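Box 3.1 — From sequence to structure: Glutamine abc transporter, periplasmic glutamine-binding protein
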Amino acid sequence: MIAFVCLIGVSPAKAAEKTYQIGTDVTYPPFEFANSNNKYVGIDIDLMKAIAKTEDFKVNIKAIGFNAAVQSMQSGQIDGVMAGMAITPERQEKFDFSDPYYKTGFVMAVAKKSHIQNFNQLRGKRVALKTGTAAATYAETLKSKYGFKTVIFDDSDNMYNDVTTGNSVACFEDNPVMQYAIKTGLKLKIVTKPAQGGHYGFAVMKGHNQELLSKFNTGLKKLKKNGQYNKIINKYLDSSATKKQQKENSTAQKSNHTFIGLLKQNKNTLLTGLGKTIELTLVSIICATLFGILLGLLGVIPSKLAQGTSVTLIYILRGLPLLVLALFIYNGIPSLTGTKISAFTAGIITLSLNEGAYTAAFVKGGIEAVDTGQMEAARSLGLSFGKSMRKIILPQGLRMMIPSFINQFIITLKDTSILSIIGILELTQTGKIIIARNLEGFRIWTIIAIIYLLLITILTWLSKLIEHKINK
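Predicted structure (token representation):
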């Protein structure tokens, strides 16, 4: 009875402490980005936190990128998306949206010295767009009429850079986002008036998380009524806010935008990303090696079924692009089974299967490269197949496999960067988040490239040392 009473007493508290998983972009200032202290801030994030506090629920905001956030919500990995998401008829077919919380429109921006002033001047030229955005959809509706070509980028910084470097003549973006970027130092200019005015909304899957949606709407109304909503908006969009940010950027240009300054300012964030990359690499190498050896051995044992299974798995896993495999495991499997898979676990499984298949191929090849007479001689001396393989064949084949193992370790390290697509905050994803704030793409990517080279050098040195000891 006492236990029953205790359970009744704690259950409401547990219900009140439910934590919702909310996906966001964090490369979309002023709505979501990492500030100079690498804390996630912005209109969307501040609004969501304020509403959660008002309505007494908890949120865990996951910086996984817009496309990854939408796909994760569709597969049930997260509960909702708050990422400057425009409410469109197409999206309303799949998602339930909150009451609108911000009105927007789409504009075209060009380089500061560009002579392009309207859509007619785009004919035959290239225009940069960001994948998955309503602004990109709007631009696509104009494409045939005005005869321009489009190129798609995953993040805003690369889209902006394509225009500033002259590869594209223009880009399309939401008006408040472009205004904020320009006011805080982006070297572009807006040449059109906001078109197709729409609204941003918080999204959940259609028919799901209706309680969360209701709480959001109730909280939003309260924030608008008590004035907190306007404070959050003005915090990022009024003239004093953008002037302050521009002044900070200007001051930081000399001190913090050098290679040394950027390293000092972002060292903790870079170290966090580096730590995650190393963790992914080490765990994946171990799992891929074990899986690859087993799969490779399966291909050489005297059984047609085992050999056929090995060949088929190697063919399938090597044939699938790593990006597709990662998305299938992280989003596809949960959609089919209803079981959530963490991004880190999905990343480990992806690398283990893909790299393991390549490992299996050269393990199988290394064993088959040993003269068949070795096995026949061992069997004729009365040794079993297993003992012949362990004592005679594998020691010889291993020496031929070592260079391939070293190469595969390096490939595994580099392939961790692809996992940024499912929102793992490894080194590459960390770089994207930093660049979204300071727009220093060249310097940040140079720093990250050097870090990768140092890691590869250390890994190669360690692998060579192990190879030397084995062959000694």
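Summary of the box: The chain has a mean pLDDT of 84.
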